[in-house]
Amino acid sequence: MGYHHTAGHRRYRFDDLRTLLAAASPARSGDALAGIAAASEAERMAARFALAEVPLSRFLDEALVPYEADEITRLIVDTHDAAAFAEIAHLTVGDFREWLLRHETDGETLARVAPGITPEMAAAVSKLMRNQELILVAARRRVVTRFRNTLGLPGRMAVRLQPNHPTDDPRGVAAAILDGLLYGCGDAVVGINPAGDSLVAITDLLRLTDTLRERFEIPTQTCVLTHVTHTLRAIEAGAPVDLVFQSIGGTEATNRSFGIDLALLAEARAAALSLGRGTVGDNLMYFETGQGSALSAGAHHGVDQQTVEARAYAVARHFAPLLVNTVVGFIGPEYLYDGREITRAGLEDHFCGKLLGLPMGCDVCYTNHAEADQNDMDNLLVLLAAAGVNFVMGVPGADDIMLNYQSTSFHDAAAMRQLFGLGRAPEFEDWLRRMGIADDGGRLLPVAGRHPLLGLAEELRP
Amino acid sequence: MRRPVPPDPWHPLRALTAARIGLGRAGDNLPTDALLRFGMAHAEARDAVHSPLDAAALADALAERGLAPLAVRSEARDRAQYLRRPDLGRRLAEDDRAALAAHPARGADSVLVLADGLSAAAVARHALPLLDALLPRLSGWTLGPPVIALQARVALGDEIAEALDARQVVMLIGERPGLSSPDSLGAYLTQSPRRGRTDAERNCLSNIRPEGLPPAAAASRLAHLMVGARALGASGICLKDESASPGSLRAAAHEGACSTQNREKPRN
User: Fold this and answer.
1) Fewest C-beta atoms under 10 Å: which of A307, B56, B153, B232?
2) What would the pLDDT profile of B106-117 be if each residue is shown by its tens digit?
3) Which of residues 15-44 of B touch A (CB under 8 A)?
4) Is the Cβ pair A197, B247 closer than 8 Å?
5) How is domain A145-434 classified at the CATH fold level?
6) What is the fold, at CATH topology level, of the domain defined by A3-140?
């Protein structure tokens, strides 16, 4: 069956749901590159009219990627909660938008229906919503997760401290960690993207961060963002692994290109759980995603990049993660061309993740060949802070010298706290107060004299 | 200079890392000097992406070395299209394909391609020093004419070599500029190049510039790889670079950052 809309004398036809969703998606270079974007602005709007009429239940009957061919589709279908869906089962996509915007649809309601919402439903409704609406609805939904502290509480925003170094030099990494801590950052995780992937390099970094955490009794978790198979080896070698990191995508073939499947993720989660390192909870998966990865891997099945991205959240949701990070502008201009497309994608991802019940954070970022700059990042950061994002990145001076891209800085996070009155994870905020890094209101204090972290700086000094 | 905001007391740790640490703060925000330094670094990176390669000057410099370079373009007509359509940057413009196919130099052991990629400055500054150190190491090799390629992606080299019927291609191409490295050159090697070769079938040396992997050192590693690929009859993950330090070389998964695979990135 097809989907139609008539505007004036023009009748638009969309062969299937996949085609309809792609045509309805706000314009972005990746869908154009894939050859699935609307051919004109009018066709895009016609697709949205047609999409608004599609019953939500239709998404349970028409798979975008065949059930037989894709374990993500099977996961979505097999774990769908019909009882939770009952509350919204009578709605079309257009009705669903209005239902989400009603004053009565509060966080509790959203949490109740979340298991009944599929990624495709979330993606579909987002395509009818303006940026402001994506912010408004997402802000109602708090997703709280715990490992060594409590993340996602109302009025709080956490920061991943990202102390990358091009050669994984331990003193260079430690210097950046110290900088971030003294700027009040690191409650989401102290997470390093390693330059090398040898077992020795990875266990060295794990020991370095764990030693620092224990020495200063920091209520946070650490992570080396390496492939899940490396993390499994590190666990076997007895390294102190708090979180299991993995990049994930929204189709089985994308995940195969990443060298993973659902069984491998389950195995790694079980291994990390067996270490029992969480003190206040056991959410220990850290996933990264980003629109465009499926197309890049030649594994998108003709599905638009925003919808495929939402499907990745079904994978994440299955493993009760501590953190899910959409790395929104990292992939480059052939997928998200400019600041406008990056901004839209960041808000869509955050909204869809929250709607599905994920602890959604965002690496607000860009590369130097994208048409974007730090002002675009400021805009998206402010919007996400307003939307109640769980966490953002903290990179020294916003300049990642290992991955060669620009993100948000420790300074940026502090500015958002000032602007919106946002606190940190409560356990971490207490620690900052005890350490004399922040005052009772959470504001950064000048650090001087015999501060213990400056003692560490003295030890590191060349 | 005016200094209303002092740097942080741990500022001396800057000696340990190029990361922008210990900057100090005005309220919660950057001091003016740090703000402007960041802006300048970004401006240089942007200029590197958008400034065209001076192909004529490069051709003259090659001619001075007794080489007779050819010039080709990809199907990407300009930078804006190049950035949006990497697939076009991997395909030779039709006229140029025909010209290469008609060129008398056939069956060379290797052909060297100098390509703008995402940083013309990288090629303009570092390709010639690299060649000057590389060519003396290739005595006994039959080299095809060097090819200057514009609006080029890495895989364009495979089609160029295929059209010239060469057994190997080395693509010297400007990498995606970083904030502190606007002029990093990458070297990509494919044995038995032809259209459709995957990234896993290439080897890559990244970050070639005086502050990274200096051109002379890169030439030594590259010669080693070229000899190895020729002997093995293959390149990519099956070819190990034993002269490399751990982690500094691997099969080329990503243009512009072949040493950073821990964050999933698009292929170029």
Assistant:
1) B56
2) 999 999 999 999
3) 15-23, 25, 27-30, 34, 38-39, 41-42
4) yes
5) TIM Barrel (3.20.20)
6) Annexin V; domain 1 (1.10.220)
